Amino acid sequence: MAAPQKKTRSTAQKALIRSALETETRFVSAKQLHRRLEDEGASVGLATVYRQLNALARGGDADTITIAETQLFRACSQTEHHHHLVCERCGTAVEIDPPSEDWMRQVAASNGFEITHHVFEIFGLCADCRAAATD
Amino acid sequence: MAAPQKKTRSTAQKALIRSALETETRFVSAKQLHRRLEDEGASVGLATVYRQLNALARGGDADTITIAETQLFRACSQTEHHHHLVCERCGTAVEIDPPSEDWMRQVAASNGFEITHHVFEIFGLCADCRAAATD
DNA sequence: CCGCTAATGGTAACGTGTTTCATTATTTCT
DNA sequence: AGAAATAATGAAACACGTTACCATTAGCGG
Fold it and tell me: In 10 A of CB A53, how many CB atoms?
């Protein structure tokens, strides 16, 4: 069967949200993005921002991480699994290579587990924020 | 000044919560633990469960991970940092050795970051749950 | 242009977790 | 032991991020 296309309509909001997210190099929350859109004069509902952000994440067009109970998003072209080095202060993120997947599988297997997924994020302070934090 | 001891009182609830957590080999949520205590006839407020669980985590006597917006706790004697292999189905967890810390520091340094902490958890299905899931 | 219906958006509802504050109970002091 | 001092408790209120509801708007194919 050919791809059973989902009936998806292209709306102004969807485009706005997508492009707004793409101009961010940092991880941003739905609320932050919503606020930015408001500031830019765009009228987009918060619910829509959440919807689209989740849709992007689901479709593999955005990465998400959770910091302090809040889900953050970041545009991301590559679908494949990857990890981040995230600045806790400004949200700047760098994609990094994962640790050995073999090692993980081995550890899991030796405990009778079958891996479904894993979470690996390194948090720290980027050079700029370190400088800013220095009194 | 010598260590300014915190005036902490030993209460029945505190002991109950602590011992209940210690009998669990799985990660449990505050709510789950609260419910279990209720079922056992103990009368403990949910707020207290949260307080004590957080106190234990803060004191290094419990580990916490977050799955699906929910914070889970697990008793843990060792204070030092470690990671888990967690069954997504039943919550059973196995402590595992961390990946090379040197590697992380190196990756961070090459991007100008200074590591504050990292998150690394492997999720999967344990042997029992795999068996149970087989139709 | 018309009709179908996906998408929107304001708001209410939800779930998790924290805070408030009056009450309870442990510890200390005498 | 009894009383005073004050941690700790617990029920309810609150804070916050996120989702559900649903009437309205607006793509898109005919």
Answer: 23
Task: Give the model's pLDDT for residue A79.
Answer: 60
B113:A88 CB<8 A: no
Q: Do B124 and A116 touch (CB under 8 A)?
A: yes
Q: Which residues of A touch B (CB under 8 A)?
A: 66, 69, 85, 87-88, 94, 96-97, 99-100, 103-104, 107-108, 111-127, 130
Å: A69 CA to C10 C1':
25
pTM listed for this prediction? 0.76
Cα atoms found within 13 Å of the Cα of residue A19, Cβ hemisphere only: 9
pLDDT band at A77 (very low <50, low <70, confident <90, very high): low
Spatial separation of the C-alpha atoms in residues B42 and B49, rounded to whole Å: 12
Q: Straight-line distance from CA A135 to C1' C21, in Å?
A: 39
CA-to-CA distance for B112 and B108, rounded, in angstroms? 6
Judge: domain B81-135, CATH 3.30.1490.190: yes
Provide CATH code, domain B10-77: 1.10.10.10
Q: How far apart are CA A123 and CA A85, in angstroms?
A: 6
**Contact at 8 Å (CB) between B49 and B34?**
yes
Rounded, the Å distance between the CA of B32 and C1' of D22 is: 34
Q: Locate the domains of chain B by residue range.
A: 10-77, 81-135
Whether the CB-CB separation of B29 and B71 falls below 8 Å is answered with yes
The answer to whether residues B13 and B48 touch, using CB atoms and an 8 Å cutoff, is yes
Is A84 within 8 Å of A46 (Cβ atoms)?
no
Expressed in angstroms, the distance from the first to the final Cα of chain B is: 64
